[in-house]
Amino acid sequence: MGATVDAPPTGRVGPVPVVNAANGLTALRLALIPVFVGLVVVSDMVHPGWRVAACLTFAFASVTDLVDGWIARRYALVTSFGKVADPIADKALTGTALVLLSWYDLIPWWVTVVILARELGVTLIRFWVIRYGVIAASRGGKAKTAVQTLAIVWYLWPVPAALTGVGPWIVGVAVVVTVVTGLDYVVRALRLRRAPR
Predict the structure, then answer these.
(1) How far is residue 183's CA from residue 6's CA, in Å, rounded to a whole number?
(2) Maximum Cα–Cα distance for the chain, whole Å?
């Protein structure tokens, strides 16, 4: 008898349709960005009710990133569209939030520039090494995303005045983790390029 090939977890055979639950959540995340921007602008970052709405919208959009990835892996729904659109949606959501918070003088502009420069740099590095292989997401990268999300949520939510001093510490941790994981990505990319074929 010939060797058998294991089927995907769902028993799927054939190409994965582009229109599926995972890609639908990615598209939803992209669609929520203008809604989030509108809520922030309406709130002018001074009206608590609108700030809460903006914060919940951002948090929900961020959660869809975790869910769509899990669905894609669990049900074998990984597509070329998802591979491209998912990181674009993530960076667009986080970048938009950081720019808005800096615009309203809640987060220093240099923090936003450092984080966005890191994300752009990592994206360019991915293209630089794509012919050599794919660098898997690390725990550090996941921690970076988590702490960035926490920092943004903290500044969107109308926290009591007595707790405002916590925000800069969260942002500080986010910057450090962002820079360190960015450097780690550079090192891993260089090793991948130098590895014998």
Answers:
(1) 38
(2) 72
**pLDDT digits over 136-162, tens only?**
667 778 899 899 999 999 999 999 989
Token reading at 148:
């960035």
Domain count, the chain: 1
Q: Please name which of 146, 138, 116 lies closest in space to residue 187, comparing C-alpha atoms.
A: 138
Q: Residue 79 maps to which CATH number?
A: 1.20.120.1760
- Helices then strands, counting H and E runs in the chain, come out as 6, 0
Read off the pTM: 0.85
Q: Which of 118, 102, 115, 87 is nearest to 156 (CA)?
A: 102
| 181 close to 144: Cβ distance less than 8 angstroms | yes
Domain of 161?
21-194
